[in-house]
Write a structure and sequence with these properties.
mainly alpha; 3 helices; 2 strands; 30% helix
Length: 88
């Protein structure tokens, strides 16, 4: 399986992930999810984040806390509904 260009949960560019991606349950690097979303084979987002819309709101708030303005955060999260985690 080829490495995704973007995290298939939040859309973060995988090449910018300082850890090189999240980890599977067996400790190997995830080829789909970033280290901010996925660790030891489980998603790190709160359990109530179970739809693309909720994930978008969550990511916008996280980005605002990191200093991004709301418009930039909104632009960055527009593709979330199209990502693999949210299509199924």
């Amino acid at each position: 399986m080829q490495q995704s260009k973007f995290c298939q949960s939040c859309g973060y560019p995988m090449k910018k992930d300082k850890n090189g991606g999240g980890t599977e349950a067996d400790g190997t690097r995830s080829r789909k999810y970033c280290s901010m979303c996925y660790e030891k084979g489980a998603f790190l987002t709160p359990p109530d984040i179970n739809t693309a819309e909720k994930m978008q709101k969550f990511c916008i708030e996280q980005m605002k806390q990191s200093g991004y303005n709301r418009f930039v955060a909104w632009l960055a999260t527009r593709s979330i509904p199209k990502l693999e985690r949210w299509r199924t």
